[in-house]
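Narrative of activities, Objective 1.

The group set out to show that a structural description can be obtained from nothing but a protein's sequence at a throughput compatible with the screening campaign. Below is one input-output pair from the validation batch, recorded exactly as produced.
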Amino acid sequence: MVCRKHTAHQRGPTVLHQREPMKSLIDMSQAIFDRQLLLMRRTRIATEIKSAEFLLRRAAEDIIARLQSITREFPLALNLGSHHGVLSDILRDDDRVETVLSGDPCMAMVVQCSGIKLVCDEEALPFKAGCLDLVVSGLSLHHVNDLPGALVQIRRALKPDGLLLGAILGGQTLKELRFALARAEEEIDGGVSPRVAPFADVRDCGGLLQRAGFALPVTDADSVEVTYGSMFDLMRDIRAMGASNVLLERRRQPLKRSVFLRAAEIYSENFSVSEGRITATFETIHLTGWAPDASQPKPLKPGSAKARLADALNTDELSTGEKADPFDNSP
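Output recorded for this entry:
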């Protein structure tokens, strides 16, 4: 990957609003994640994140591939939840993107980014309305407590016809680890505590984009299976990503050694491949949405078509038959 020095345009720093950042409207009694603990863990591993960045890089490349199919320019772009700048660096090499801002709540992460950088929370954006042309976010938004609220703030910060391209972890992520830990904990302790975060389902994400006011929403998902020597190697990678358990409802005391050992056995028994290695699933859900604008195509009202589909396809229209009569008892 080629990184080039980026010179900020004069208008770049002026996008920050002078008022206080918007505060999240989430009721803390409904919060799922301990955001302060997440920040502490990401700060601790910030200097080592490059050793476990494969998921970040994969998400970044997928986002860029989607961006390349769009033929327009983006003068001002924000990488929200930038981590240490993998996506920012690739985005900056796109000639259609003039200025790239890197924003992350973790100071130790964002200082590693090149170009313009700022510390900002995904749940309380500091941008004025209608100032951004593009917002990208690679594997960050799945850890916010108020995802609909965060999407609303992103949409407000975008100019009309501005674009959001995001990637979050999906519900199939680490399904094997969830299974093994739950089974082992139930066997030994007689109960199960939350150990792996609940992730969004692709079927729900399109609705979230619509609720947030995005036009032309599109969601899709893809999965990758990664092999490890053991469950403990997988868990070391998760810790190196700063992605270990930050659930508010997590059990505060650590798991017993016997639970971990039994979980490793269950994992190997159910999800092993050749040479004794195990597999771990990581699902990525991609979010695409546009800030509404009058120039965007609008769906026609039902019944307003002026031509038959059969004519467009140059084929004959065949009736499917009469509707069934629920009171007809004839054979």
